[in-house]
């Protein structure tokens, strides 16, 4: 279900009409539809730039102020298209490029109303965006209604190419490892444990940024609190009959980023489920990883 996007007060009557926490942006290419597979970093930069044009003080506070080096509590999806994206070889290029269909869209999610509203307004006002060298026209923005939240949900990466990133670094080493659902690397925690810890950290961050929203979620769920002892059960549903998950690799600033894609079954208090819908699963959400939608239960 989608609704036309409209600007609204971030705090006014929050619980009377719960704000949607995902918006979908429809864009149209201004020339051809071919783009590098490694466009997510450029997309992140584009969102930062359009935000700085409309809300410069907020943008500075977010990226260089009190929110610098902290969880941003927003995520966006890779580009989706119809017909679906295809890898094509371009003469003179070493790596294959991605050919998008003529209808293109992506989503942005956040439980932080000020941020989601500012990004939506910036995209509407700017009207034109650039991702890498490609120019696009913003055609429409719609609000996405959340699914019915239950204590057990199946979430899957959104659309055609979203994926989940679960990095881990040892306290004694600076080297970053990327953990997959069925593998622990360099004595890392299991993937499910990394996801759980990340969710708890995100909820703590929500309490710092918008305590009123976190409190309202807890109150509506009729629970006392969300903390490190909150029960969260996570399991993985196979991507296909032949493989437990699909491996995906991107590059950001020429640095390899290894991610994965498969449905994830989570049993947790409803405030955690709302947080997943609004911030995604895993880490590096503000760089284009982890945005999800409701999936089908395999049972």
N to C succession of SSEs: EEEHHEEEEEHEEEEEHHEEEEHE
Q: Helicity, in percent?
A: 25-40%
End-to-end separation in angstroms reads 25 Å
Q: How many strands, which pairing sense, and closed or not: the largest β-sheet?
A: 7 strands, antiparallel
pLDDT < 50 runs, ≥5 residues: 5-17
Overall mean pLDDT stands at: 89
Give the overall shape: globular
Give the C-alpha Rg.
19 Å
Query: How many runs of DSSP E, i.e. beta strands?
Result: 18
Decide which structural class fits the backbone: alpha+beta
- Relative strand content: 25-35%
What is the number of helical segments per DSSP (H or I, 4+ residues)? 6
Describe it.
- With 299 residues, the chain is an alpha+beta fold.
- 26% of the residues lie in helices and 28% in strands.
- The chain is built from six helices and 18 strands.
- Strands 1, 2, 4, 5, 8, 9 and 10 form a seven-stranded antiparallel sheet that branches. The chain has a four-stranded antiparallel sheet with strand order 14-17-11-18, covered by helices on one side. It has a three-stranded antiparallel sheet with strand order 3-7-6, with no helix packed on it.
- β12 and β13 form a beta hairpin.
- α1 packs across α2 and α4 crosses α5.
- The longest helix has 19 residues.
- The radius of gyration is 19 Å and the shape is globular.
- It starts with a strand and ends in a 5-residue tail after the last strand.
């Amino acid at each position: 279900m989608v609704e036309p996007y409209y600007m609204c007060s971030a705090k006014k009557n929050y619980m009377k009409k719960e704000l949607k926490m995902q918006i979908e942006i429809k864009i149209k290419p201004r020339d051809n539809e071919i783009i590098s597979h490694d466009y997510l970093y450029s997309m992140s930069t584009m969102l930062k730039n359009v935000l700085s044009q409309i809300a410069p003080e907020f943008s500075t506070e977010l990226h260089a102020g009190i929110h610098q080096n902290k969880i941003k509590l927003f995520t966006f999806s890779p580009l989706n298209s119809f017909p679906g994206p295809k890898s094509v070889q371009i003469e003179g290029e070493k790596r294959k490029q991605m050919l998008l269909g003529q209808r293109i869209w992506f989503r942005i999610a956040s439980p932080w109303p000020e941020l989601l509203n500012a990004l939506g307004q910036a995209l509407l006002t700017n009207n034109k965006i650039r991702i890498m060298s490609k120019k696009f026209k913003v055609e429409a923005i719609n609000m996405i209604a959340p699914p019915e939240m239950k204590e057990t949900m199946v979430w899957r990466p959104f659309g055609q190419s979203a994926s989940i990133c679960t990095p881990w670094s040892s306290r004694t080493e600076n080297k970053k490892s990327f953990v997959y659902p069925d593998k622990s690397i360099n004595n890392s925690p299991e993937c499910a444990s990394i996801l759980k810890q990340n969710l708890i950290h995100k909820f703590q961050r929500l309490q710092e940024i918008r305590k009123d929203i976190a409190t309202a979620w807890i109150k509506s769920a009729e629970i006392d609190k969300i903390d490190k002892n909150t029960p969260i059960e996570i399991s993985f549903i196979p991507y296909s009959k032949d493989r437990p998950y699909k491996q995906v690799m991107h590059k950001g600033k020429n640095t390899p980023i290894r991610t994965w894609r498969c449905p994830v079954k989570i049993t947790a208090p409803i405030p955690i489920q709302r947080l997943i819908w609004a911030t995604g699963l895993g880490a590096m959400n503000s760089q284009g990883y982890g945005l999800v939608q409701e999936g089908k239960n395999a049972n």
